[in-house]
Amino acid sequence: MARPVIPRSLRARLLALWLLLLASAAATGYLLFAFYSQSADVQVGQAEVAVARACREIVDRTAFVTGAMASTRIVDASLRADLADAVSVALARSPGVEGGVWTAAEGSVAYAFPTYEGTGPKTDLPSAERESIAQINADALRTERPAALRRPSRTQALLLQACPLRGPIAGATAWTMARIQTDHGPAYRQLLAGFAFLAATVLGSALFLGRFLYGFSGHIARLKAQLAAPRSERGDLPDLAPTGEPELDRLVDALNAASARLREAQGRAVAAEKLAAVGRLSASVAHEIRNPLSAMRLKAENALASGDPARARGAIETVLQQVARIDGLLADLLGLTQTRPPVRAPADVAALVEASAHLHEDLAREQSVRLAVETDGLPPGARVSIDAGQVARALDNLVLNALQHVPEGGLVRLAAARVGEGGGARLLLTVSDTGPGVPAAIRAEPFEPFATGRPDGTGLGLAIVREIARAHDGEVRLMESTVGATFEIDLPWL
């Protein structure tokens, strides 16, 4: 069983591409942060080694100072100075490390920060870390082994190390401390540069894809609107305007070329259809002409055989009537097969409809039929570019067709209206009646030549209306109605 094909639009694919780019940027950002964290951990680890080594240096240096001393719990000023000098010497080769000597009884008895980068030598114990220093030294005294403390924060890591002192000073420990700035240094700068590049890449791609999608969707929407615009019943494709996008314009050129070929093929098909219609109608035309010719021949033969002048006169009148019938048939047939291209000019549609109704007032009055005109659906002073003569002929055919079918006391209504706006506006001309409607036998194809519901009809009037509508790039329709028949001519409003 074949798997169903799920259509995916270009917009969806580009959105998926942008999401993949975003996911890739997020993964890269995570890796950058992981690398930064690892390098920061390495930096802190190296600093811990330096702090521990400096603490051992203090232990070794102070051992020389206290080596000849007897056991004591009191550290006098002279000893404090010697211890401070020993601490300074011990830390001289440890950049960024400060430290000293601590006793359980007196607290800090010596302090030095020989690599301090301030304006002068730093001799005061950091007050903010005093409790941490006291705690780490107490831990070293309690366990009698070195104790270490790492206190990280968002921007730095505080490292402390305490080492018990073996010697005459009771309860003494050496301690060292360093602050590692994790928001400085090459790793941090590389992290910021990487995040800045990722942000610029993601934002730039989002803006580029957004602009592309917006412009591409706009071009597609305009092409769709042009293709969806109302067209004639022949289905002519409009000439599409270039979009400025090379890929789309290649498609536009192909569609325009296809439209041109379609119009040419339709022109040839229409011509072929007319010729084929003439061929198909030959038998019907022969039948329509044979009947009046047979009647004329019979009348003439009877008049010649009788020798009665009155009968001869009656035969001549019958011949003239049948000649008039044949002449009307041939005129309609020529009008169907030799329609000329419309000569368009601005025409007052309301006046044209009024004139058509006025032309048939006498016939309507004789048949006791009421004619009504409705032009309220037209803009004031509406003028449309049409061949007024051809459109008037189409209206006359529809009105005559209605008058021939509507019973005494009935109604024939002529209406004109504009529907739609802008380039899609249309002119609708409607002729309706209250007669019996179109017979079911010809309702499927009422506009085919010789399709008629009257014994004396030629069946060419509606076919001529269709040809006139097509020549104006429009169409004529038989509308659904509950009473009588309603025909609608639909023309472009130009």
Automatic annotation (TrEMBL):
The chain crosses the membrane at residues 191-214. Keywords: ATP-binding, Coiled coil, Kinase, Membrane, Nucleotide-binding, Phosphoprotein, Transferase, Transmembrane, Transmembrane helix, Two-component regulatory system. InterPro entries: HATPase_C_sf, HATPase_dom, His_kinase_dom, HisK_dim/P_dom, HisK_dim/P_sf, Sig_transdc_His_kin-like_C. The keyword Coiled coil applies. It comes from the Bacteria. Residues 248-275 form a coiled coil. Its EC number is 2.7.13.3. PROSITE patterns: HIS_KIN. This is histidine kinase. It is an enzyme of class 2 (transferase). It catalyses: ATP + protein L-histidine = ADP + protein N-phospho-L-histidine. Residues 284-494 form the Histidine kinase domain.
